Amino acid sequence: NAGVTQTPKFQVLKTGQSMTLQCAQDMNHNSMYWYRQDPGMGLRLIYYSASEGTTDKGEVPNGYNVSRLNKREFSLRLESAAPSQTSVYFCASREKGGTHEQYFGPGTRLTVT
Amino acid sequence: GQQLNQSPQSMFIQEGEDVSMNCTSSSIFNTWLWYKQDPGEGPVLLIALYKAGELTSNGRLTAQFGITRKDSFLNISASIPSDVGIYFCAGQLNSGGSNYKLTFGKGTLLTVNP
């Protein structure tokens, strides 16, 4: 049981390049989330998917798109990377039901030059 | 957006000391969670709280859900070097529209000197 996995672990992009961050969970969770973490800013929600087939904007969605490919996978796409998107990106998932506990992946460290 | 005020921002303590940190909000929360993040890793859930006044322990960690539902506290007793990391509080608002989302504090960076 791997929990939440993310690929790649590290990535360097040039301004204007595009890329997709991959996330998968094997816990049969309904909801999935993408956060970014910047120094002194804590975790900020980019997009989330409450259930398969739905996606919604979070606090900082500009410059990103997401796809809930199936129940297991939730990808984050940067269409035209900017230096302001240099950050550590975390994917998380949450099971259906009354609890609100989210479980996080190990993160992707992205640098945009 | 909604903000949680987490304090202190950082702490430098000696091994063996007790630690206390807290989060406060102007809004009511249904759930409080405490996470720990080790350097280079993702946050790991430590304790979850679901009822006002609830006091829950996990080893040397104890957390409480404030009676007003607007705050929570985390205490670590007899700290050890592996307690080093960033501790985050997170809350789920008492609002149907926010049912799927958590609000995070900005974290408390804990350093433990051996």
Which keywords apply here?
heterodimer; A: 113 residues; mainly beta; seven-stranded mixed beta sheet; four-stranded antiparallel beta sheet; 11 strands; 0% helix; globular; B: 114 residues; six-stranded mixed beta sheet; five-stranded antiparallel beta sheet; 54% strand
Summarize, please.
The complex is a heterodimer of chains A (113) and B (114). Chain A has strands at 4-7, 10-13, 19-25, 31-38, 42-49, 56-57, 64-68, 74-78, 87-94, 103-104, 108-112.
Characterise the protein shown here:
The complex is a heterodimer of chains A (113) and B (114). Chain A is globular and about 40 Å long. Chain A has strands at 4-7, 10-13, 19-25, 31-38, 42-49, 56-57, 64-68, 74-78, 87-94, 103-104, 108-112. In chain A, strand 4 and strand 5 (42-49) form a beta hairpin. The mean pLDDT of chain A is 93. Chain A is mostly beta strands and 113 residues long. In chain B, 0% of the residues lie in helices and 54% in strands. Chain B is globular. Classes of the chains: A mainly beta (113), B mainly beta (114).
Terminus-to-terminus distance of chain B: 39 Å
Oligomer: heterodimer
- In terms of DSSP E residues, the strand content of chain B is over 45%
Structural class of chain B: mainly beta
Give a quick account of the main beta sheet of chain B: strands, pairing sense, barrel closure.
6 strands, mixed
Figure out the total of helices of chain B: 0
Q: How many strands in all of chain B?
A: 11
The share of residues in helices of chain A is under 10%
> How many alpha or pi helices of chain A?
0
Strand content of chain A: over 45%
Q: Which structural class matches the secondary elements of chain A?
A: mainly beta
Q: Uncertain spans of chain A, ≥5 residues at pLDDT below 50?
A: none
Please tell me the overall pLDDT of chain A. Answer: 93
Greatest interface (CB-CB under 8 A), with counts per chain: A-B, 26 and 24 residues
Estimate the helix proportion of chain B, in percent: under 10%
**What string, H for helix and E for strand, traces the elements of chain A in order?**
EEEEEEEEEEE
Query: Which spans of chain B have pLDDT < 50 for at least 5 consecutive residues?
Result: none
Total E-strand runs of chain A: 11
What order do the SSEs of chain B take from the amino end to the carboxyl end, as H and E? Answer: EEEEEEEEEEE
Strand count, sense and barrel status of the largest sheet of chain A are: 7 strands, mixed
**Average pLDDT score of chain B:** 92
